[in-house]
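Researcher: Please translate sequence to structure tokens.
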Amino acid sequence: MTVHTGTTVKALKRNADSVTATLEGGGKTWEVTAERVILAVGIVGNVEDLGLENTKVKVDRTHILIDEWCRTDEPGVYAIGDVCGAPWLAHKASHEGVICVEKIAGLPHVHPLDTSRIPGCTYSRPQVASVGMTEKAAKAAGYDIRVGRFPFIGNGKAIALGEPEGMVKTIFDKKSGELLGAHMIGAEVTELIQGYGVAKTLETTEEDLVHTVFPHPTLSEMMHESVLSSLGRAIHI
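Model: Translation complete:
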């Protein structure tokens, strides 16, 4: 995999069995030929032909504006999912649907959605997963942070699976011990990230995670080791 940052696709040329892309960046122009080209430059809401023009429903840059209960400004009209904006994830839309219906039904103890606790997963090889803040975002928000890292090569299960490449990274507020964010790359991290998702929802601290027992041999042990690493206490590196 080759990643080109600060690069613009200037043109695409369809060949008999391939596509040639003209790229521009860093003061130079070059061509790359591939079998297929996938273009992903953002998501817009499908709000056309819904009859919203004569309602109080507000649309901002193709996305419907809602409150914490998924209500629009038009009484009785709700919206969920991609049409309401980021993050554009199926599990976010599903959770919004539950919140919306429970609120309509008048159920007690309904909680609004906190998007900072929604895990993001990329089903590539290797897989990528994250929840919460990045290290850069945490610093920009004014947090004094502590960061832990642990590599897949230090985990027996990862080695046994033949997947020794990857890492787990955790970010904590040094003052309170709050888990601010977690980031992973490697085998099955889209499954592992939910552990940190639960931790954020429960407002788990660094100390809580240190005292949690993780089963052996599992990939999840790396999650523990990353927390220990933030305190300079990692065991297997």
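Researcher: Any highlights?
Model: Strands lie at 8-14, 19-25, 28-34, 59-60, 63-64, 120-122, 128-132, 145-151, 167-173, 179-185.
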